[in-house]
Amino acid sequence: MGSDVHSWRRWLSAPRLDKAGGAISRSVDREENTLSPELDHLRKQLRGMPRLRPSERESLQLRILASKARVRALRYKDWPSTFRYLLARFTLHNDNLMKPIAVPAVGGLVAALVLFLLLAPVYPVRTVNAASLDVPTRLSTSASVKTMASFTSVERPVNVLVQVNNEGRVVGYLIEESDDALLNEAVRRQIEQILLFTVFTPATNFGLPCAGEVRISVDSNVVLVQG
Amino acid sequence: MSDSFLQLGLSAPPLNGDSLDAELFASAEKALVEGLRAAREEAYEELIQRFQQPVYNTVYRMLNDPNDASDVVQEVFFRVFRRIHAFRGESSLKTWIYRIAVNEACNRRRYFQRHIRQELALDAGSTEGWNPEDTLAVDGRSPFDEVLGREQHELLQYALSRINPVYRAAVILRDIEELSYEEIADVLQVALGTVKSRILRGREALKAEYLQVSVESPVLTLSPQHAE
Fold first, then answer.
1. Block mean pLDDT (10 aa), chain A, length 227
2. Could you say which of A66, A89, B35, B91 would form a disulfide bridge with B40 (CB–CB 3.0 to 4.6 Å)?
3. Residues of chain A neighbouring B13 (CB-CB closer than 8 A)
């Protein structure tokens, strides 16, 4: 086998040996034979320049590079090799990184869990009524009754359409449905007293208060807001 | 040692024009490439033994700096090892490696011109790579011839570093590495006529530079003195 290696190397290095001997040239061109004497001399000088060789240290560095490249090539040669390499890497990380921190990590997790279970029952939990914080996002809202004066009442039910300005004050009212309300001065005064002490929320348009109307129903003992 | 590229039993050099030898050479090169792809240690060793010196020589002649040449050689072989799977065999392995070397050397030279124009090597003058055989070589030449030849080579290298890099690469590949025109065309990826043109112009430019350098700093300065 040694002779095979030797013959193969000798064969590969054959061009260099022939060149050194000067007997054979790989490319014989007519241009080479018709060079001027000066250029021919220059060419001979160039061919006579010494063959520079890398130092031993550089050769060693190159062999180290080759070794690393070979290991890398073997590592990713095929899918099983790649899988074995990744598995070995994972095992290495698992043994050297995960195991040392496993006990402290589990201890910390258990301690945190125990503390949570101990403190959770005594921790005051506040419930928030979400409906009270709800803000209508409509662009326009109608006027509404905020507080109703309830110290007076009428004898018969009366439907009143109240006109509210942008400050929430009553600027007028219209009795829509009643038997004798328009004729009875006392009933009208009672209605006006109710409206006078009733606080309205003005209608809004794009967030700004504006004039609006609200329909209420005044009965003998209750006041219904109809919208 | 069961590698196929080592068991070919080849002995004859493929330079005698025999097509059979050429086929065997191609098959050996193919076996070497397959060995590299299979990550065989022998293939890596053979590749380094075969191509490290010519690649280093080529890159050094192009860059004229031993430190840069060493770095570029590392880059070249790193790329060869990484990209051997992408080698399609449309060209020979030799021209493929030379192509990488020339491209890396050109990239290094551009980077050097842009970024580090003035940089001093800390290990300049280091004798770490010194080999006694370098200075004790006995080839029958006299000390005068030895010194004269060395000075001429230094001037030639200096002149070589001053010509256009495009021509320099062609001249180095042809006259120093002695690649054929076809191989140079494959390495530089230009037409055959372009290769010939570049080599011719490169030689002319090198001759002009060499003459100028020789005038500016002659190889030997004689200082005759009267005999006492």
1. 45 44 45 76 84 89 92 88 92 85 91 92 72 68 80 72 88 77 72 84 86 81 59
2. B35
3. 10-11, 14-15, 17-18
Contacts of B171 in chain A (CB under 8 A): 46
ipTM: 0.71
* Per-state percent for chain A, helix, strand, coil, to nearest 5: 50, 20, 35
Q: What does the pLDDT read at residue A122?
A: 82
Task: Provide the shortest C-alpha distance from residue B114 to chain A (in Å).
Answer: 26
On the CB side of B30, how many CA atoms lie within 13 Å of its CA? 10
Q: Would you call B86 an interface residue with chain A, using a CB distance cutoff of 8 Å?
A: no
Strand partners for A209: A204
- What is the greatest pairwise CA distance in chain A? 142
The DSSP H or E segment spanning A200 is: strand A199-201
pLDDT in tens, B136-172: 655 566 777 777 778 888 888 888 888 999 999 999 9
Query: For the segment B180-193, what is each residue's pLDDT rounded down to a tens digit?
Result: 898 999 999 999 99
Q: Whole-angstrom Cα distance, residue A207 to residue A211?
A: 13
Pairwise CB contact (< 8 Å): A8 & B15:
no
Residue of A nearest to B146 (CA): A50
pTM of the model as a whole: 0.57
Nearest-Cα distance to chain B for A63, in Å, is 8
* Cα–Cα distance measured from residue A9 to residue B195, given in angstroms and rounded to the nearest whole number: 30
Of the candidates A38, A56, A74, which has its C-beta nearest B39's C-beta?
A74
The distance of B106 to chain A (nearest Cα, Å) reads: 19
In angstroms, the CA A135 to CA A109 distance is: 42
**Nearest CB neighbour to A52, from listed B60, B74, B131:** B60
Q: Provide the pLDDT for residue B86.
A: 87
| Cβ pair A43:B175 closer than 8 A | yes
Q: Is the separation of the CB atoms in B208 and B122 below 8 Å? A: no
